[in-house]
Amino acid sequence: MRARISVVIVTHNDLDNLVGCLRSLAEQEYPEAATEVVVVDDGSTDRTAEALHTDFPGVRVISKPNEGADISRNRGIEETTGEFIAFIDSDCLAFPDWLARLVGRLAEDPNTVVGGRVLHRGSFWQRLTGIADFGEYQGLQLKEVRTIPTCNMGLRRTVLGGARFDPRLARGGGDTLFAGMLRRKGATLIYDPAVVVVHRPSVEMTDLLNRAKRYGRSFVEARKIDPSMRWAGFVRAGVPGVIVATLGRTFLDWQRLLRHRLAAGFGLLELPAAMLVLLLRRVASLPEAVRALRASDE
Question: What is the CB-side half-sphere exposure of residue 123 using CA atoms within 13 A?
């Protein structure tokens, strides 16, 4: 008998994408009898719960007030019963072998946390999101990493233990704190490119820049909470340090774009525009990062 795995999905007013995600989970090669799907409806107003009860009666739906993704993920964890727990976002589609490969990799080492490729297809802006937000998760090499995005993550319940998502980062970034917590507990975080989801964000240039602003604030706030994080020394150096870190992260974005451009679907003629937008994205993040820095010093 196969080990039971619980899949946690947090959603807020994203019914159309969620339906696609659930259909991809229904087509998994992993046995349905060993799979539990828990959807945490974070205060949706688009009749998500009613639709799921009708169209996906085998899915457990937890309805709660809108409190943010991290609090909702914690609620989802409490509702699960599986030996393994996986996380995927409502705007993602899982490859048919997603769960089987997650469980297979986790079975090799009981102390690992596993993530995988986060593919982006479609428009220029959607593909650029893959580099901007998930640049480290485009390659084809198995490797150890420092963090794993919650749109494609799996771990054993015994590794999770009492660790939970920190709800203090309302604008995003909770997965980085969660990963640091797991590493301090002794877990090894592994990127396996064979564990694949397709991320389908609804994004244009303004969305990309607005996300950058949110991430600018959470970049500082996360490192104030956990000074052991990468780039935390720059945050401690104040505004000059944050500016230098922003420039450094821009060069890192460019490096990832050039390294993974084929996997991310970028042609040579698209590279100059992509590099320019990645620079503008980092510049757009600076004002919010500085505000967060000053707020934390008050």
Answer: 10
| pTM for the model | 0.94
- Whether residue 137 contacts residue 117, with contact meaning beta carbons closer than 8 Å, is answered with yes
Considering just the CA atoms, what is the radius of gyration of the chain in Å? 19
Reduce the DSSP state of residue 132 to 3 states and report it.
helix
Distance CA 69, CA 81 (A): 20
- Residue 150's identity, in one-letter code, is T
Buried b (16+ CB within 10 A) or exposed e, 121-132: eeebbbbbbbbb
Rounded CA-CA distance 83/93 in Å is 23
Give the pLDDT of the chain (298 residues) as one tens digit per residue.
789 999 999 999 999 999 999 999 999 999 999 999 999 999 999 999 999 999 999 999 999 999 999 999 999 999 999 999 999 999 999 999 999 999 999 999 989 999 999 999 889 999 999 999 998 899 899 999 999 999 999 999 999 999 999 988 766 778 999 999 999 999 999 999 999 999 998 878 888 888 888 889 999 999 999 999 999 999 999 999 999 999 999 999 999 999 999 988 999 999 999 999 999 999 999 999 999 998 877 6
